[in-house]
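Pilot study result, target chain (199 residues):
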Amino acid sequence: MSHSVPDWLGKALHNPGSGHGGLVAAQLADERMFERGGFKLTSAAFADGGELDPCFTADEEDAVAPPLEWTAPPPGAQEVVLVVEDPDAPGDKPFCHWLVWGMPGQKGQILEGEIPLRVGKNSFGNSEWLLPDPPTGADPHDYVFQLFALDLPLTLMPGASREELVEAMKGHVTAVSLLTGTYAREEGGDYDWDAEDED
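Predicted structure:
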């Protein structure tokens, strides 16, 4: 996939490549929105640019989504939305691992393994955290956790697609924060990277 990476996004990422230009943040945010008002996403499980523990990936049988927490968004925020994508996956757009919305526009968190109320379809068409499972022997993939503050509450029902979520968010993003985890598989996985993207 080949996309132009906005300057602000390139500076915010550790190892930007052409695939990063396809991230939702590249479509909906700009330099003025990045960490506006101190809005920041972090995790107790990994540092920005750090490696994900196998317990959050397809390498472990009982793997779950990592814990996340964020500071208060700028005043006027009505909702917070999380999008997690792998821009290093083959294909014409990033591989979608998680879509979560319906979270209050305030300081908040998602606990380790927590199942949020409103989750959309990942690239496999399932409404859940899609475990990172890059091809064996590949360079580490980036998993970019993108947190958006919106100026209105979304009316999307659970199970919406990435495209539906992006369309609903257009023109309503007031701030964004990014957190990147990396992962490289040491053993073979079961993913079919040529599977039809059901977004």
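One observation from the pilot: Strands lie at 41-42, 50-51, 68-70, 79-86, 95-104, 108-110, 118-119, 141-150, 173-183. A full batch analysis is planned for the follow-on phase.
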